[in-house]
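thread: overnight batch results

M.L. [08:02]
morning all. the overnight job finished for the chain we discussed friday. pasting input first so we're all looking at the same thing
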Amino acid sequence: MYFLDTTFVVALFVSNDYWHPQALEVYKNIKNHELVISSLVIAETITVLKNKLETKEILEIYRSIPNFFQVIEDTNCYGDAMSEFVKYDSTLSFFDAMYVAIMKKYGINEIISFDSDFDKVDNIIRIH
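M.L. [08:03]
and the structure it wrote out:
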């Protein structure tokens, strides 16, 4: 099971993204595994996409997400995310701290991401 970070999701769907070729290659190798995102990843992805795509394209991506990934809820992880945020002395964004908290809650230790900030997180393996 892999948790997918926003950087990967954006790169996968945006053909002119710097990481797009690498995202396609990684996806080819992981697509037969359980791929997990949270509702917060969806929110962050849409926010990033608004600067890269037209609204109709973003809507198509939003509608297709459940076809590609399992979406898990994250509403009860904010306290744990704040603990991770403090543990890493604000060197992780709150989004990233939230993803770490979600991963720990669900027993996921591998994240697909182009964000090197995850490299400093204990017991998390970043695949890119």
